[in-house]
Amino acid sequence: MGEDILELDTERIEDFIDRYLELDRRAQQPYGVFSFLSGRREKKYQQTLKYFLDPHKPHGFGDTFLEVFLEVVDVPELNVAAQYVEIEEEVHIADESSDSRIDLVICGGQALDDHPDWAVFLELKVGADENENQTPTYTAADSWQFTWFDTTEINVDELDEATYVYVKKAVAEPPEDDEFDAVDWAAIAKTFEHRLQGSLFQYPNRSVIQFTDFIQSLQETENMDSPFKEDELTERLKLYFEYDDVIQQVEQAHRQFENDFDDVSKYLTAQWADKIRDRFRVTGSGWKIRSNDSPKWQGLMPEYWDQDPFGWDSTIALYFRIPSTTEQLRNQELSFRLRLPPQRKVHKQTFEGDGSFNAVFTEKCTGEYEDEIRGELEKLDVDEINLERASSLFTKNYDLDPENLVSSYFVQVTTAVDEFCSESPQLLTLMNSVFEESYEDVFGEPPAGEFSGSLSKRE
């Protein structure tokens, strides 16, 4: 922890913990402020969500909850911290003959560029059902009235990624247009709550209370139990001022641990591929390492599963994800999964066939190929099988040794690659058959090249 030696007062720490836990034991649940405000709850959610997602607003959270939100709505591959982001509500379709408008649009890209690189189109539903032909109208729109620096319109065709999200109550019907991904308010509330719990004293007090009330209201919408209480938060913050010296000492230690996890994550991200090359014949084998600046999206795949049907920047890809994130390290596990990128335009749009590549692929996985695929996965003792979900078709978790995270990570990465990429030829053959058939159905021609089969080991 550097040259500074932390002098922790253990007696004060114990007293602080006792008093903090006592608040949990005697706290009671009030209704959220949203319950008493006039006006449509849907509109209030829209305005509040826009405020807390916007990194330019003075709430003190920065882009924290924007990143969390994009991940929960399955838009995980955007480095928003390095981009300019603009958010608008009640965004109209740029067509004089149409009065249609969508609740929220989030756009991001490089500052001062003529056009954003990506956009997320959000329709929010709390009590009302979808209007007739509402979501199909949105997905059919070519352009929207959105201010991005000097331009007042965004064109969908000029976006690298266009994502459509339909936020609803868990019991509500899904959107009419299947290009919209349905997300429950419950999932958003749970994710926001989890992110806030470990950072109570990291952000401005007023913003914490306001955001907590928003979470509580989301939970009321879904009839969820909420552990957050405004009066409890007030008492906790009073406790903070009394024990701020203790908290700052512990936070200093926590920051150092965070830095340590970041350092390990960066090291693993830089080194894991070399460990695989040492064990397996990757070069010239028809397999490729999928490198990425983010530790979330490292991976391994047959070259045949990386196709470029149109010469776009984004390709059709089916790959084994090998993350080295700090979250995985804290959880002491490696989560190894097979996935398709869920939000790439080339994966989501319909071309020659009757559906997008991801839709056709998952339909085949849950149809004619399901029994065979499940049979092979059961042999491998996988933890989750979600063949209907493109972003996580199946997952197996490998435990990491807390006594030595680095060496155990390398061991488990090698084990996972061995099990799925080298020793499971029948599973690979099945997934390749689904890949080939889906590709030909969607693009009207077979993939380029040949499937290389299993990854061979070095002697």
Give an overview in words:
The structure is a single chain. With 459 residues, the chain is an alpha+beta fold. The protein has two domains: 35-187, no CATH class; 253-443. Helix content is 41%, strand content 17%. It is built from 14 helices and 15 strands. A six-stranded antiparallel sheet has the order 8-9-12-13-15-14. A five-stranded mixed sheet has the order 1-2-3-6-7, with helices on both faces. A two-stranded antiparallel sheet has the order 4-5. A hairpin with an 8-residue loop joins strand 14 (384-385) and strand 15. Helix 5 (185-197) runs antiparallel to helix 6. The relative contact order is 0.09. Mean pLDDT is 84; it is low at 28-39.
Brief overview:
With 459 residues, this protein is an alpha+beta fold. It is built from 14 helices and 15 strands.
Q: Main attributes?
A:
alpha+beta; 2 domains; 6-stranded antiparallel beta sheet; globular; PDDEXK_4; PD-(D/E)XK nuclease family protein
Rg over alpha carbons = 24 Å
Report the principal-axis shape: globular
Q: Which H/E pattern describes the elements?
A: HHHEEEHEEEEHHHHEEEEEHEHHHEEHH
Note the gap between the termini: 43 Å
Beta-strand percentage range: 15-25%
Number of helices: 14
- Count structural domains: 2
The helix fraction, in percent, is 40-55%
Low-confidence runs: 28-39
How many distinct beta strands? 15
Main pleated-sheet profile: 6 strands, antiparallel
Protein name: PD-(D/E)XK nuclease family protein
Organism: Haloterrigena alkaliphila
